[in-house]
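Example for tutorial group B:
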């Protein structure tokens, strides 16, 4: 709703500014470019196969060489390295070669990478680009960063057209909290980008090409300055002015998303090499972790760690990248063992940090040979014993309630009033009084039956054996409550049967 409200406000301001200019010219409409990326040759096939006798349905069709048209360049490390042939009406079977895949990218996103822009213009603006001989799993991550950078251009266009009321700072902060928050599955910022584009196309209609050209002409940064202290040396420049914070938030969103991916599939060091090849400015990695250190100092004090927990969520993802990238280890804000202890603290708090960053930290400490060899015996034991399926410990309030109930159970006196309707109805019937269900349900006996005393003793011994496990505490507590409810229902049924027999 907020995205639609902002886009509707900007659409009205744009209509007033442009005088309601619209266009249906096909050359001005944005296009989607098919980009083929992979390290292996592209598998091609002809039209769909028509099954005949003795011919399997899944057999590929034979393509006539006369249908071959026009050479298609193959791009590798900078220049064209070979030539293959493009076939008319050809569809690639990506399932046969997982190391080669195709992506449909909007042209205004494609042009944000100088390398992709040069390849696109060298290809005379055709809708097919590639194959580009790069590792296929890094290209979707590159697109995520390019889309975040284009949202900064969109923010500048919104502010220039409609003022600060149409700013996207609130949207960026919300995306950062959502991506870096505690959740089981990784939250991607791409759906927010797609929702924004869909709303713009719906509200602007035929004015969308003009507004798209205006937004793409906006620079994400007006000026460049030296990186302030506390930022990584991977990116030596930082934006200056009021766009400082927005550029930093966009980089934090990407770092948080990257740190929650599988480390074996998307290594951070190789991701930086992909940025260098496509000439895209890499995201800024934080070198100072003040909020995470503040959280670690008060993590055992109830009510004190929540003050810095949100900022600690973001810094935990930066710490995962710092641990993984070997070139940044010389810029660590803490010593080696202090940094590892901080990472183990994050690894051991599943209720405070999401499973993606915890899995990335555990993979880094186990897979990196240099880090694994430098761990002491206690740290290595904590890394190997870490269980990512752990739901965390119980809060102090819950533990206090369980201890209070255990103290009453051990003393043999309950905290409430225990009634026994069956014995109460039997006593009333023996004295000649009418068996009243309401009266029988409120009779309190001073002495407990022997069978309940024996069950209480058995429960007390079981509680003492499970005193060291909070999870067993909760399970046994729930079982005890259900068992007591079933016993009460059985007693009430017995009382009803006794009353009916007496009547």
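The residue assignment follows.
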């Amino acid at each position: 709703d907020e995205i639609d409200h902002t886009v509707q406000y900007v659409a009205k301001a744009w209509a007033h500014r442009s005088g309601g200019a619209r266009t249906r010219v096909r050359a001005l409409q944005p296009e989607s470019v098919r980009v083929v990326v992979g390290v292996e040759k592209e598998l091609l096939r002809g039209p769909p196969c028509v099954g005949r006798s003795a011919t399997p349905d899944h057999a590929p069709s034979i393509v006539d060489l006369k249908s071959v048209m026009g050479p298609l360049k193959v791009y590798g490390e900078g220049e064209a390295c070979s030539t293959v042939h493009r076939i008319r009406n050809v569809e690639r079977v990506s399932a046969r070669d997982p190391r080669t895949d195709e992506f449909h990218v909007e042209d205004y996103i494609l042009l944000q990478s100088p390398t992709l822009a040069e390849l696109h213009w060298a290809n005379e603006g055709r809708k097919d680009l590639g194959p580009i001989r790069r590792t296929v799993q890094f290209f979707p991550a590159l697109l995520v960063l390019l889309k975040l950078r284009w949202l900064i251009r969109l923010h500048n266009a919104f502010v220039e057209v409609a003022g600060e009321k149409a700013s996207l700072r609130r949207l960026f902060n919300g995306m950062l909290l959502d991506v870096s928050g505690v959740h089981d599955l990784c939250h991607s910022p791409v759906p927010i980008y797609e929702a924004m584009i869909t709303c713009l196309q719906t509200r602007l209609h035929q004015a969308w090409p003009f507004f798209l050209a205006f937004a793409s002409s906006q620079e994400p940064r007006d000026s460049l300055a030296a990186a302030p202290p506390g930022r990584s040396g991977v990116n030596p420049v930082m934006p200056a002015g009021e766009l400082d914070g927005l550029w930093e938030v966009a980089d934090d969103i990407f770092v948080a998303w990257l740190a929650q991916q599988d480390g074996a599939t998307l290594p951070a060091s190789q991701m930086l090499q992909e940025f260098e090849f496509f000439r895209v400015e890499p995201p800024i990695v934080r070198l100072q972790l003040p909020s995470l250190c503040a959280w670690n100092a008060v993590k055992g004090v109830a009510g004190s760690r929540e003050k810095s927990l949100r900022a600690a969520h973001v810094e935990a993802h930066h710490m995962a990248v710092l641990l993984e990238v070997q070139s940044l280890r010389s810029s660590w804000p803490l010593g080696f063992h202090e940094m590892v202890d901080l990472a183990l603290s994050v690894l051991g708090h599943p209720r405070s940090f999401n499973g993606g960053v915890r899995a990335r930290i555990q993979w880094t400490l186990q897979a990196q040979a240099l880090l694994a060899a430098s761990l002491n015996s206690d740290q290595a034991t904590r890394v190997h014993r870490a269980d990512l399926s752990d739901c965390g410990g119980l809060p102090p309030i819950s533990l206090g309630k369980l201890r209070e109930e255990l103290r009453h159970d051990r003393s043999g006196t309950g905290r409430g009033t225990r009634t026994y309707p069956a014995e109460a109805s039997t006593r009333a019937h023996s004295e000649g009084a009418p068996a009243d269900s309401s009266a029988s349900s409120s009779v309190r006996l001073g002495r407990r039956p022997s069978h309940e005393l024996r069950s209480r003793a058995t429960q007390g011994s079981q509680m003492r054996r499970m005193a060291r496990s909070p999870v067993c505490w909760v399970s046994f507590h729930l079982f005890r409550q259900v068992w007591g409810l079933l016993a009460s229902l059985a007693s009430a049924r017995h009382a009803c049967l006794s009353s009916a027999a007496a009547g």
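Strands lie at 32-38, 44-45, 68-75, 80-87, 91-92, 100-106, 128-132, 224-226, 237-239. Compare this with the pattern of hydrophobic and polar residues in the output above.
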